[in-house]
Amino acid sequence: MHKVSFFKSIHVKLVLIYVLLIIIALQIIGLYFSSNIEENLKANFQESISQRIDLVQYSIREEMLKERDDTAPTLEQSLSVILREFTTSDINEIRIVDNRNKVIATSDTDNQAIVGQRFNDDIVTKSISAGTFWEEIALDPDTKNRVWVLSKPILNTVGPNGEVIGAIYIESNIEKVFEQMNDINGIFAVGTAMSLVITVVLGILIAKTITKPIIDMRRQAQAMSRGNFSRKVRVYGDDEIGQLAIAFNHLTNRLQEATSTTEAERRKLSSVLSNMTDGVIATDRKGKVILINDPALNFLDVTRETSLNRPITSVLGLDQEYSFEDLIYMKESVNLNFSTEEKPLILRANFSVIQKETGFVNGFITVLHDITEQEKIEMERREFVANVSHELRTPLTTMRSYLEALADGAWRDENIAPTFLNVTQTETERMIRLVNDLLNLSKMDSRDYKLNREFVEFNKFFNRIIDRFEMSKSQNVKFIRYIPEATYFVDIDTDKLTQVIDNIISNALKYSPDGGNIRFGFTVQDQMLKVMVSDDGMGIPKENVNRIFDRFYRVDRARSRAMGGTGLGLAIAKEMIEAHGGRIWAESEEGIGTTIFFTLPYEIDEAGDWD
């Protein structure tokens, strides 16, 4: 989270707002105060001047109406004396003008030249002609100061009509009032500045008390975003911000618990998805892959990067057959065949929709289960049933034919009857062998058997079996032995291993041509005895070599059945060898011959303890 700039800080904003409010309030108060003070000062000044005018007006009127003789002072002298008495510092000049606009007296000693001259000022003219009071604030052209100019008519109160006999013209220095206002405004400005400084300091302190808990909560939120829930916001009081800090700390605790629970569930889910053998694919509501576990990646042979954000129909290879909407309403599983020449792979895909309570599709889950082995077992089961049915049907059909012939009277023929009975007996023995082999395989599949193990010298054991076959063989076949002189002991069930070797040698004899060779031998390889039986028979096609140990499998079915084979001998041999901890396999080249190998754990006689 980036750092908040200075001017965007809530601390600065609070101080600025606080100061602006104070400035606005002071401006409003200052304007109101200054306006009223100015009006009051002007009113007081004008009232003071007006009161003095009223006082001097009476004396001036008496002097102007007074009859004079030669011994009395002239009117101008008398008025000059009166004007000098009433002249003060706030009055610049007082002029007495008669009703013909002639100046008859002035208080300005330096301006006595205007006495006797006409004074054509508009205010005086209006005042005399209208008989009313006139006033205005004007600008002194010499000093550039504001002056209050007024003209008040002098009325003759003795006459019946109260005629105007003159006017008093006064120029008063009202600039002093404005100077007083400037002084007052200056004092107010200094007070305002001082109050603003105090206000800023107080604003900073007050804003700090508000913003400090908020800054702490901001830092805590940043720490929480990084997964650190150990910090706590300090509570500075019990006000709203204090209650917010308490609630924030409580939220931190709850969020820590929820995060821990979520993390634990996530780890459980991750562990389950990683360790389960089934593949799991999750999509968003648009059908694009958002999660895929390792088994699914292995099944589909894709990488996580190429799978994420791709449509699930494309990932599963179903885009030609189904759309995402089709999969949403899919109730049954779908089998997917990803088999290759090297490896068979059949998957069963089960689909599940994630929906909200409103029915809105929020996602999609696909579970992939490897059913390759199941399908293989099912196919083998079907093939096994078909093979058993076929193997049993052939001798039964033969027996039924011969028995029907005997029942029809062939038993009376002394030449035919014994032959028919001999065939029937042969087929019966063949079915008995088949059933016995099936029972043996069934016991091995169910592990319902026990190996009667004993330590035997394998050299003698193997030679004894070879000797038995060599003495009883009817074909012109030569036995060649490659058996080492060192003595090796094996822990085996002699009956079962004898059955295995008998089966292998019997097959070698069956498929060996006259004049051929059968080779026997064993070597030591990887702590195991590697036993070999090889013939010069017709061999097995390369593509069928690995199938000769399957149940009922025959390379040449007609010839095998004619030789009385059941097709289960090598399957039984494989089960027996694996039960002894070894393995069995074949190597063959068509037209040249076949070699059967199997391995067994062994012990070597180093000190003669086995004698």
From TrEMBL:
Ranges for domain PAS: 265-337
Catalytic reactions of this protein: ATP + protein L-histidine = ADP + protein N-phospho-L-histidine
Start and end residues of each Histidine kinase domain: 387-604
Domain HAMP stretches: 208-260
Bilayer-spanning residue ranges: 12-33, 186-210
InterPro entries: BphY/WalK/GraS-like, Cache_WalK, HAMP_dom, HATPase_C_sf, HATPase_dom, His_kinase_dom, HisK_dim/P_dom, HisK_dim/P_sf
NCBIfam families on file: HK_WalK (NF033092)
Descriptive protein name: histidine kinase
Species, as recorded: Lysinibacillus antri
Lineage, top ranks: Bacteria, Bacillati, Bacillota, Bacilli, Bacillales
